Amino acid sequence: MQSTHKISGDAASGFAAYLTAGASRGDYYAGGQADGELGRWHGSSRALGELGLERGGAVERDDLVTLMEGRSPRSGDPIRRVGGDGSRVAGIDVTFSAPKSVSALWAVSDPYRRAQIEAAHRKAVESAVERIETDVELVRRREHGQLRWEAAESLVAAEFVHTSSRLTRDQETDGVPDPQLHSHVLVVAAERQDGAFAAVDSRELFRAARGNGAWYRAELAYQLGELGLEVRGRTGNDGRYFEVDGVPEGLSRRWSSRAVDVERAAQRFRERYGRAPRAGELGAMTVQTRGTKTVAAQVDVDAAWRAVGEEYSLGHERAEGLFADRARHSEHAPDAELLAAVTSERSMISARELEARAFELAAGAERPAEARERARGLARSGELVELEGGWWTTRELREREQRTLTAAVGRAQERVAPVSDAGLRGAEAAAHAAVGSPLSAEQRDALEIVTGAGGVTALVGQAGTGKGVVIGAAREALEAEGHRVFGTAIAGATAKRLESEAGIDRTFTADALLHREAAGRIVLSEGTVVVVDEAGMADTDRLARLIETGDRTGAKLVLVGDPAQLSALGAGGLFAALAGRVPTAELSEVYRARNDWERDAWRELRDGNAGEALAAYHARDRLHLGETRVEAGERMVEDWARARRERPQERVVMLTDASNEELDRINALAQAQRAGSSEIGQHHVELPGRPYALHGRDEIVFNAQLHQPGAERIENGTTGKVLSVNDREQRVRVRTAEPTPRDVEFSTTDFSDVRLAYAQHVYKAQGMTADRALVLTGGWQTDRERAYVALTRARERTDVYLARDDLGAEGLDDGAIARLSERISKSRAQEASIARPEIDWGSRPRTDVGRALEAQRQRERERDHDRGYGFEL
């Protein structure tokens, strides 16, 4: 990995002492001063020569401190200016850390192999520093009144190789740290292209951290392959990392104590501030969680490491056997893999993300420079397509979207499964009888559109506008005239809810429907209609296949959803692109909320005007503030328990938009509340991976499909109530809350993909209706779509719970609401790539990712400058 953090001016001397405490090949825990050079200088020979230093030469502590003070070691003269407030940042510590399996192998190897691994690491660091010099615009200057950023002619940086992590608090007793091969590259200045020295734009280093770290890892993987080691790429954190084959995973986990400490600190940060720490904050956190580095001289760290390696069957002989006689590298890194990665999560990707992903995929396959050229070659060939706004997509996905749109629009005049006027009037009467009131004019219009002309029609309905009522009436009209109606959705629980709310008794997940149709188990034709619920959450591939299937079979598709709610997990945005281009009905009159003011607030939220919506909740004492996110969650649980006691006939739900850890913590608190009131049984069964067990009368949700012989599967997202538990056999019996409830029994040792359902994540709640909702929001994951879904679930009342730390204010003043409003107003809704024009280069050569990345960085810098953000080191 690569972390980045600033070193303040007053910390210069102490940090310089820390860096120079151990030798490059020694370990600063071995007791006393180790032999060898203390570090080496990076930069051009000319630039370093002007400062009295030598490229690759040893770093003297006094020279380093002088540079951190902004002065030349040769002359003592200032080489960079102080900041506008008179302070100076001493340097930027860019740390390159090898994957844990590399450090583990280093620790158990003999001196010869250790030296080889260290040399591979050094080469990778040097390559990464060169990449920073050539690819990252680190310096700025003013030209004709305009700020310009450019790459440095040379960095001035000192590298220190350390081979151990800091001691954790738990390790201070025995004095044995974990092995961790890493380099601190302290950037203290840069030479501009005009030859002058200057401060670096530290913000650019932070922004480039992912790409720089990926470049280092790819080069390190290549160098290790040259030693004959087998490297396994695409590991950890969405496939961003690599490991050395043959190093036991258990040993890597054993020697990850510092990573665990930092992750705990990051978790505490998330709990306190409601968001993930940013790059600079994470770097500072890494420093703050360090223990001591002083151990007794008699501790034989090397022997302790080898003993631990033997415990995991990685002794010297086995370690030596991992080195082959010849270099090991993958023969190629296929273009298809990079193209698939570009659109694996969204329909479009920024130039910065594209380049970083290319480097990540290169580990174990090719050198990062080759990966960079691969990405640029794909851009020049047109396989990668540049869009307006600095976004990229693949030609394959864009053409898929265009074909799907053409097919859907081409069916606009088709009369598929036609419904007579008499059929519509009968359906309206049935709906009136079912809900106790007639359809509104808007709903009647929507009914006529979705059942009228068009092989593909769309129903866009805002939250609480009665989409289910309209679809139920359409199903009534279609079936009355002899047409078959199928229902589908991406999530199985959503499909089941469609069955309950609209009376469609043949509902399937999209994957199941497509599979059964392909196998001939479901026959679609001009007399059939497929209702696709929550179509905004459908990824492009599934929605395209549904439309292609309808086009091939002649079946009618009715797409139901709301682009303003949650998007697909994967490349998506196609529903929003289709809506309005096929016959489309819209529902905007809200019925779910009982109060007029809340209906207005929902509209404001949907339109991105969060400030006015929040002010309405605040005026009615519906915003509740805790000091921390944990405290806000505790307050929410207490109010939830009180509401259930006072109005047991109502459905009361708690929702959060943050992490699964937070969700588990809230559910555990809710369970404790119920236990204290004797609402759940005393016996329990363990639930692996959760901070709670399951008791009788607990309310749960299935987080995966449950397959049982001879029975219909339980869909992911299905809720239920625990009827009984068998603590001796760890078995639980549950009654599901499906349209047709049923009892199922399973062992939590065989199936543990369930969770308490007192609180649910927003993604599980889309489409849900409750009487009262309590919402914990305002954290780092909060955005317009999550907030809109969470705050539009309840008929009677919605309360919002926030943390003061999230708001950065002493109370709910106007400024605090404004800061929260900015977060909630931010949209992360997916766009299909066809929503943005392709860059038209005419007869000029296509741009490449490098030029696009430069343009993207320029836009980011101009935005930051306009906002008044600081830059310099």
Overview of this structure, please?
With 873 residues, this protein is of the alpha/beta class. It folds into three domains: 2-326, no CATH class; 401-587, Rossmann fold, CATH 3.40.50; 596-825, no CATH class. The chain has 32 helices and 31 strands. The strands form eight sheets. Strands 1, 2, 3, 6, 7 and 8 form a six-stranded antiparallel beta sheet that branches. The chain has a six-stranded parallel beta sheet with strand order 16-15-17-18-14-19, with helices on both faces. Helix 13 packs across helix 14 (351-362) and helix 17 (421-435) packs across helix 19 (467-480). The longest helix is centred in the first third of the chain and has 25 residues, at 111-135.
Q: Which descriptors would you attach to this protein?
A:
single chain, 873 residues, 3 domains, 6-stranded antiparallel sheet, 6-stranded parallel sheet, 31 strands
Outline:
The protein contains 32 helices and 31 strands. With 873 residues, it is an alpha/beta fold.
Counted by DSSP, the helix tally is 32
Kindly estimate the percentage of residues that lie in beta strands according to DSSP: 15-25%
Taking the alpha carbons of the first and last residues, their distance comes to 22 Å
Which percent bin holds the helix content? 40-55%
Largest sheet: 6 strands, antiparallel
Shape: globular
Averaged pLDDT, please?
Answer: 85
Count of discrete structural domains: 3
The total of beta strands comes to 31
User: Class by helix and strand content?
Assistant: alpha/beta
Low-pLDDT segments: 23-37, 271-275, 292-297, 866-873
Q: What value does the Rg take, in angstroms? A: 30 Å
